[in-house]
Design a protein that fits this description.
It is built from eight helices and 45 strands. The chain is mainly beta.
């Protein structure tokens, strides 16, 4: 055996558990994609089973669905993926909503509906997404969290196939997947809509992977842009291909005549921005190299202080900085320009040289003279300059959560909808925090860059949601995806999982808010997952709301009521099992092993990092903050009965041969996972907490 094959074997062995742990039975409410049959482990014996713990609101879970597709195709006769749907939001526990999501996201494997988190608890899942591999004899062999594990899983599957074929315990053949009946209609799970100058509407027909121009009756199709085949291809309208596009914006005429295209499309699953010439339907690629940003090959360092650079360099300076970074790497010195470091702020690069991550919505900012992009996959707000092709980060550290303040330090959680108000500020539907956020664009500095700050108008945190009107500080939304500014300056929100359109009034003129404190009311309800809301004004009437009802596959025009509803169905928190821990010292360990063919990038020190905080803040007496390493001792306050530990782990690994130095220009990868661990303090409970980023049970 060569030194290289020995190292690969060690890596594969490290991914596998050292103890033979029998897999728990699969329990839940019902099965989807099985033709009505219930499955159990006995029925799956002889197959390699990959349990994917997911929830359909989660962008990281959607990334994993796409990462797994090639593995499912390559190993279709030996591998069975089972999606264990473990809902975060109340709406996700609705079986009808889950069935629609399974169809929408083109899931071609069995799905277990587990609203009570029975299987989640049995397998000690702690985060979305979590992956568990069960061998053909029914034993757990790997436990992974987060994205980017497809390569390592491929190595493990090959090993399991060889092992169990030799033992006679592998059964080849078709799996239990049965395709459901597809939805028929003009639109299929539409995303966002913009009005056109000719009075028609340009609709992002997400489920059909195309754009549709509808006449004002909202039924008659004027034309279609895109072949309707999922994929990536530039060209004329009838041949161009998209992959689950979500958002669209129309450029002002003063910009469009210079660019040669009028519309910018957020081509979400292709991780690209596309340009559309409306006169001809021609489609071109504007930005994005097609690689999901966190998985991009390129230097991926983790700094000890947890922060990247707030880049004020222009495009020329930025390019020079990138070149200097390469030279620094060759000299063995640390540098600050890293393609994979999601906390870098400012200039990123030009056009198709930049990696993006699930762009969800786009809007033109007159104040910035740029297209603003809701980059859901990295929890940030990007910009794209259509005249220069420059891509930059406007706001967001890349960490998931709700934190206000200066743009470099702010946290978002899957921003999904954008709107611009008359002052030029941006409103953001921040879906995973069930929040409405405001990005204030202040006066420009000496370099011409505006001072950017982030505020929260409605919302409390990652696990807080509900359906409550009234004062903005106590009002609650549930996973909003769309936002629009109304003629009176208030803000309409497509409150997706509440099936409603809500209104936020900054002045507090309605509801129970104190004067000027802001209030929330309900404009419409009973809608089927409204993903977008737009204000349109017919030539002969009052302004109306144009709402995209995604799960009804249609658009609806609604009046803006003068007397809005007041709804209070309470507030809720995501209910997950609390982990009992002892007060005082708590040893935190995150396990990570680089995949075969990769090694930790330790050229400039420890390439791993932990960031720890808590809710309430008083829970954590010591051990909070950001520092290198994946092990730390926390100090828990005995005076606080329970709370949530917020933990972010990151590790940088690069391609490299075993026993050799990492080449200067090796492809590198950043692994990251965010956990929110509910804990309850109990005497005699565990004083250690072990999590798996890429590790073992």
């Amino acid at each position: 055996m060569t030194a290289e094959s020995t190292e690969e074997q060690r890596s594969a062995d490290a991914l596998r558990t050292s103890r033979r742990v029998r897999a728990s039975e699969l329990g839940g409410r019902a099965w989807l994609n099985t033709g009505g049959k219930d499955l159990d482990l006995a029925a799956l014996r002889g197959k390699i089973v990959l349990l994917d713990f997911w929830t359909f609101c989660c962008i990281n879970c959607l990334h994993v669905l796409d990462e797994l597709r090639p593995l499912e195709e390559k190993y279709k006769d030996v591998l069975v993926t089972v999606g264990v749907h473990s809902p975060k939001f109340e709406h996700e526990a609705d079986p009808v909503a889950l069935a629609a999501a399974v169809e929408r996201y083109d899931i071609h494997h069995p799905v277990l509906d587990d609203p009570d988190l029975l299987t989640w608890q049995a397998y000690t899942a702690r985060a979305w997404p979590t992956l568990v591999v069960v061998d053909p004899e029914g034993y757990i062999v790997a436990h992974l969290s987060g994205e980017g594990h497809a390569g390592g899983l491929g190595v493990l599957i090959e090993e399991l196939v060889a092992e169990h074929e030799a033992k006679g315990t592998l059964h080849r053949g078709d799996g239990p997947y049965v395709a459901p009946e597809p939805t028929a209609g003009t639109l299929r799970f539409p995303g966002q809509t913009v009005p056109l100058e000719n009075g028609n509407y340009l609709v992002v027909d997400t489920g059909h992977h195309r754009l549709v121009e509808l006449r004002p009756d909202l039924e008659t199709v004027e034309r279609v842009i895109g072949s309707g085949t999922k994929g990536f291809l530039d060209g004329q309208a009838e041949v161009a291909q998209f992959n689950e596009p979500q958002g669209v914006a129309v450029l002002p005429a003063s910009i469009a005549w210079q660019t040669g295209y009028e519309a910018v499309v957020a081509d979400t699953v292709n991780h690209r921005l596309r340009g559309v010439t409306l006169s001809s339907g021609h489609v071109q690629t504007l930005a994005g190299n097609g690689v999901q940003r966190l998985l991009d090959a390129g230097p991926a360092r983790v700094h000890g202080d947890g922060a990247g650079t707030w880049a004020k360099a222009g495009p020329d300076e930025g390019a020079a900085a990138a070149a200097d970074a390469g030279a620094a790497a060759a000299d063995g010195e640390p540098h600050d320009v890293y393609a994979g470091d999601i906390e870098d702020i400012g200039y990123l690069g030009h056009g198709t040289n930049v990696s993006l991550s699930s762009p969800w919505d786009v809007v033109w900012s007159e104040k910035l003279q740029k297209v603003v992009v809701a980059m859901a996959g990295t929890h940030q707000i990007f910009t794209f300059d259509p005249l220069t092709g420059v891509v930059a980060i406007l706001a967001g550290s890349g960490l998931e959560g709700l934190l206000d303040g200066p743009a470099p330090q702010a946290w978002f959680a899957q921003p999904s909808g954008l709107a611009v108000d008359p002052s030029g500020d941006l409103w953001v539907a921040d879906s995973e925090t069930s929040a409405l956020r405001r990005v204030r664009l202040g006066d420009a500095d000496a370099d011409g860059q505006p001072a950017v700050t982030v505020e929260t108008a409605v919302g409390r945190g990652l696990f807080d949601f509900g359906f409550r009107d009234g004062a903005a500080d106590t009002a609650r939304l549930q996973h909003p995806l769309g936002v629009a500014v109304l003629p009176d300056g208030s803000v309409a929100v497509a409150d997706t999982y509440n099936g409603a359109v809500r209104r936020y009034d900054p002045s507090g003129r309605s509801g129970d808010a104190a004067e000027g404190a802001g209030s929330v009311t309900t404009l419409a309800r009973g809608l089927a997952e409204p993903a977008d809301v737009v204000v349109v004004t017919p030539a002969d009437g009052e302004p109306l709301l144009l709402v995209t009802e995604t799960n009804r596959h249609e658009l609806a025009l609604l009046p803006i009521p003068k007397d809005a509803q007041q709804v209070d169905e309470g507030e809720r928190q995501t209910q997950r099992p609390k982990t009992p821990v002892a007060a005082g010292p708590l040893g935190l360990t995150v396990r990570f092993k680089a995949p075969t063919g990769q090694k930790l990038d330790d050229r400039w020190g420890d390439p791993t990092q932990l960031k720890v905080s808590s809710t309430p803040a008083e829970l954590l007496l010591a051990g909070g903050g950001t520092a290198q390493g994946l092990a730390r001792t926390l100090e828990l306050n005995p005076e606080v009965a329970e709370g949530v530990l917020h933990i972010t782990a990151r590790a940088a690994a690069c391609d490299g041969a075993p026993g050799e130095e990492i080449p200067d220009h090796a492809a590198c990868h950043l692994y990251q996972q965010d956990w929110g661990i509910p804990v309850v303090l109990r005497e005699g409970a565990d004083s250690d907490l072990v999590l798996d980023l890429r590790g073992l049970d």
